[in-house]
Amino acid sequence: MPRPGPRNLITDVPGLTVGSVQDDDVRTGVTVVLCPEGWSAAVDVRGGGPGVRETETLSPENSFSKAHAICLSGGSVFGLGAADGVVSALSVNNVGIRLSPQSPAIPIVPGAVLHDLGNGGDKAWDLEPPYRALGVKAVAAAGQDFPLGAVGAGRGAMAGLIKGGLGSASIDLGGGLVVGALVAANPVGSVYMPDGETFWAWPFEIDGEFGGRFPTGPVSATDPLPQESKLGAAGRLRAGANTTLAVVAVTADLSTAEAKRVAIMAHDGMGRAVRPAHTAFDGDVVFALASGAIALGAGPQRPVEVSRFGSAAADCLARAIARAVYEARAFTES
Fold first, then answer.
1. First vs last Cα of the chain: how many Å apart?
2. Rounded Cα distance, 7 and 62, in Å
3. Which has fewest Cβ within 10 Å: 38, 153, 191, 239?
4. What is the pLDDT of residue 181?
5. How far apart are CA 136 and CA 28, in angstroms?
6. pLDDT per residue over 189-244, tens digit each?
């Protein structure tokens, strides 16, 4: 029976570290997933209002579809600068590719951002948005253990009308095959069923990781956009004002095209955990990383295994979204 890894975090995939930092005055933050050896990587964008960096670099037809880190940030377009800090911090530590002996190391750091500019924090940064500095700090903070909830890239996030946050989960499939997910959850849709207490992701929960609540009676899910009027009044029904950003990772030796398939399938986790997902108001993005530690072989079983990883990644992402909101519930602004 597959079980979560020892941390129940994406860092149960060996070789990954995660750094999360935030600025509580600005009410924003940055989370970076580090794979400094350069892992096969891909991305799939489904939301109608994405904010991204270097996603085309990861297209299968391009010459270097690998990544040394993935950077997730608050701050909308300003938050894209966080990846500049990550690039600089990695380069001075000789992480990246070299096109000539004299050149500095060139890290490949794709990234994506969520909108948290309307949350009341101090955004009067003039010509010095905090995100580059936060990117540098996130690299320095990276390790195998990291907090969940209203932290890092999820510091200023909302999930519909409630607090969003940073979540993660993992599953060990046996034989060294481990799948993990990390998410910054800021969707316009609801993570809760109509009772306001049971997560849509409840069938995928393991060991009460987000409260252990399940439906106790019949459930109706006929309203296609729950709480539409309240979301409109709160300014959430605006293109780009919401998003769910995710990274999924596996230990297998996936090609870029196979990693893309895993990213595509992992998006199903959003549909399992958020209702509705992939709207015109979200910028939903999933990055996929593959360490290459476990060889799958080239036989007819290979696409079956790739599909199993994609399904497991979707389950992990659904669990990570629920964990993000569950861990953020006790948060209060100081």
1. 43
2. 35
3. 239
4. 98
5. 15
6. 999 998 889 999 999 999 999 999 999 888 878 888 888 888 887 788 888 788 99
> What is the per-residue pLDDT across 256-304, written as a single tens digit (0 to 9) for each?
999 999 999 999 999 999 999 999 999 999 999 999 999 998 889 999 9
Give per-residue pLDDT as tens, 11-35: 999 999 999 999 999 999 999 999 9
Q: Two tokens at 233? A: 């009044």
Q: Are 156 and 119 in contact (CB under 8 A)?
A: yes
Asked if residues 16 and 68 have their Cβ atoms less than 8 Å apart, the reply is no
Name beta bridge partners: 44: 286
Partners of 21 in beta bridges: 30
Report how far residue 272's alpha carbon sits from residue 64's, in angstroms, rounded to the nearest whole number. 33
SS3 for 82?
helix
197: left (phi over 0), alpha (psi -120 to 50) or beta: alpha
Burial 202-240 (b: 16+ CB within 10 A, else e): bebbbeebbeebeeeeeeeeeeeebbeeebeeeebbeeb
Long-range contacts of 121-129 (CB under 8 A, 24+ apart): 121/23, 121/25, 121/26, 121/27, 121/28, 121/156, 122/25, 122/26, 122/27, 123/26, 125/26, 125/78, 129/75, 129/78, 129/79, 129/81
pTM higher than 0.90 = yes
Is-contact 321 209, C-beta < 8 A? no
Contacts of 21 (CB under 8 A, 6+ apart): 29, 30, 134, 137, 138, 141, 152
Judged against a pLDDT cut of 70, whether residue 114 lies above it is answered with yes
Q: What are the backbone angles phi and psi of residue 7, rounded to the nearest 5°?
A: -100, -20
φ, ψ for residue 289, nearest 5 deg: -125, 145
| CATH no. for 10-328 | 3.60.70.12
DSSP string of 66-80, one letter each residue: EEEEEEEESSHHHHT
**Residue 91 pLDDT greater than 90, yes or no:** yes
Q: Is 318 helix (H, G, I), strand (E, B) or coil?
A: helix
